[in-house]
Queue: 2 jobs
Job 1
Amino acid sequence: MSKDQVDIVLIAAAWSGGAGALGLCAVWLLRTRSVRWLTGAVAVVAVVAVLAGMVGTARAMFLSTHDFNVMLLVSLVAGLVAVGAGAAVGTAFSGWSHALQEEARRFGESGEFKAGNDRGRGPAEFQGLAEELSRTSDRLRESRAREARLEVSRRELVAWVSHDLRTPLAGLRAMTEALEDGIADDPSRYHRQIRVEVDRMVRMVDDLFELSRIHAGNLRLSLEPVMLGDLVSEAIASADPVARARGVRLGGGVDEGLEVVADPAELSRVVGNLVMNAIRHTPSDGVVQVVGRAGPDHVELSVTDGCGGLSEEDMQRAFDVAWQGSSARTPDHTGVFGSGAGLGLAIVKGIVEAHHGKVSVKNHDPGCQFVVRLPNAATAP
Ligand SMILES: Nc1ncnc2c1ncn2[C@@H]1O[C@H](COP(=O)(O)OP(=O)(O)O)[C@@H](O)[C@H]1O
Ligand SMILES: [Mg+2]
């Protein structure tokens, strides 16, 4: 490059650069205005930068005045075209953004995001935004559905619990009246029956209390290392008489030395609820297996029964509060299987999740299998 050319580049850079810097300041001042102003201003800056460069280097170009005027005119016309194009693009931008704004406004009103067609949505960024809004809308719909399900099960809970409390209370009143009037032919049977009913109601109130603590989020866990084998043996030992009475074989095993960090009382409640459910839903001569295994980063406890399989709906709703299966509600008057108000599995889920674990159910011939996964002792909360 000759010295002349270097000079021209330097002079043009100084003039165009100066014009460009001033233009950027102007664009900055306009930044909160419509995008139409911005694209128009960018086009003006581009043209002014070219003109400034030309004016600055005019002397070095040795042009005649006539030639210089011609060049000025040509670049002015080109400039007008550029500004027009910039404004057109800006108008299109503002159209797309208004459409999106309108969709977002309707989203806010109806809670459903209905996107227009892709081509009417403009550049990739706007499409990305529309897709994000559409995903948000899906998530909102899901959480509304979840809320609605919760609300329904809460209402069912109140209805069923009052039903489940009213029936034994009516029985208790009848029995106490009979005792009072001295017309009970076998008072000791009445006493036993009263005792059983009261126990069952105590358990139901206890379950409700536990559930409300879980839902209020103030389940206080006192975590400590727990030998899973010991905990399962205790649960099996205390459930064994019930299993025997129903002719159900209760067995299983836990890996040697398997340890979890958990609240022992709450975890016992989990295992007890699952084992009792399994026994209750297994026909006589059936088998209930409780197995504890170590996974790569978790401990897995499974309770397998012979319930004959669960329907899709049962599996989806088993952990809902007050869900009692798609079969008819048949309160268990012995009370050994818990309150019988459909709270057991909701409590299991609440406790397991408070331990940062997960509980699930699947069919497992000839019955179903409830699986609790807890974080390893090393990774526990
Ligand atoms: N081991 C199981 N096998 C088959 N069904 C089960 C089992 N455990 C629970 N269920 C179903 O899930 C429902 C909810 O269980 P749960 O919350 O313990 O309430 P409850 O025992 O009071 O009925 C039960 O009514 C039953 O339909
Ligand atoms: Mg139960």
Job 2
Amino acid sequence: MSTLADTSVASRTAYEPVIGLEVHVQLLTATKIFCSCSTRFGAPPNAHVCPVCLGMPGALPVLNRKAVEFAALAAMALNCCINETSMFARKNYFYPDLPKGYQISQYDKPLAEHGFSEIPVPGGKKRIGITRVHLEEDAGKSLHEGFPDSEEKTAIDLNRTGVPLIEIVSEPDIATPDEAYQYLTRLKEIILYTGVSDCNMEEGSLRCDANVSIRPRGQKQFGTKTEIKNVNSFRFIREALSYEIARQVEVIESGGKITQETRLYNSQEGKTYSMRSKEQAHDYRYFPEPDLLPLVVDEKWKAEITKTLPELPEARRARLVKEYGITEYDAQVLTVSRSLADQFESAAKAAKNPKRVANLVQGELMGRLKTKALEIEQSPISMRGVAASADLVESGAISGKMLKDLYDLSFERNQDFPEVYEAEGRPQQSSDTTALERIIDEVIASNPKQLEQYRAGKKTMIGFFVGQAMKASKGQANPQLVNELLAKKLD
Ligand SMILES: [Zn+2]
């Protein structure tokens, strides 16, 4: 491993990696793409099947309208053009979990094309082209373990067969494993904002295959590529690509040739292994699906779908920074999901002073979350709680110090702010002048030396008295009032 890593460093200037990604995203429709079987995850094996998704002779597919809308929405969010007419095609191959012997996909006339996504790179942004977004059905699952006879037999679960997917194919514009990681992170974020998928990698709702080759820097022609399949986290994809690039450099430097093949990544060893030689498109004998009409998304339908396109993360971040005066970093954290950004904005709008909500999130919430190593979704204080606390400070009911203490209690007890505030008996900062005057008199009487200094002209001494009075009131006094009363009494 270490020799490979070294080769990679030494050859970074000599070779240039070329990476393209194919991402499969499962759409959140209630039913499958060509039949009315449920798509729900986690049902007993083969509970959600029918003649259509089992590929029985004579069964006919009927296209799910929602799947088309979701696919088009995702494609629009990725800046693609929606083709008015697209075609379904049969992709023929044999696999035990593919009962029809072919997968219904799209080939030369996909639903959408010519998109792009922007990723952050050192010193700016880089545009990664998106070749196409097409619709297809998922295959079933082969289960190689978990049964008493798993040693000899493979079980098949066809619940997933016919679940709608989109495949998002990037241009080979990605130059480093880091860029691949950024591209996937952005892609997932955008898809989540559109709400067309939950992008849950553990449940296979988002899967990624990576094509990677290297070429001498400056050469136009691509080198032979390998495909890394079924890597189940973005971090592993980055690692797998780093390994594969180093491996290819080593093969070429030692006079060998790269074989076009599919490789699997073993995350425990941090290595890729050859799985099979890579199929070419012609191996699949694609032909138009005779059981389905061409898919037509006309202007009217397209306009309806466009209306459901939400504000996307990048635009939202820019707006939050501008509207609420928060930092780029906090905007990033607050827009990590659409629901969190919605919560923040509705809390900020409901509060008397939206800017104060933003300030509390930035000044009081983020730091405490960081200390406790919590994600913002795990915060004991909800955005509603932040808004409630902001209003209490705004109206002068509680002081900043009291808010800090109440936030500490919230984190200690893992309770939202309003609950803690109630449990603590709705504490109020004291504006009872008589009680305060008594406290101040005591403070003055018990500090004759400081009083002398003050009267001798050291006016900054007032800070000392304010501090003592606040302490004596256990932080409950209104600091402004303490200041006023002290000034009156001392002079
Ligand atoms: Zn079915």
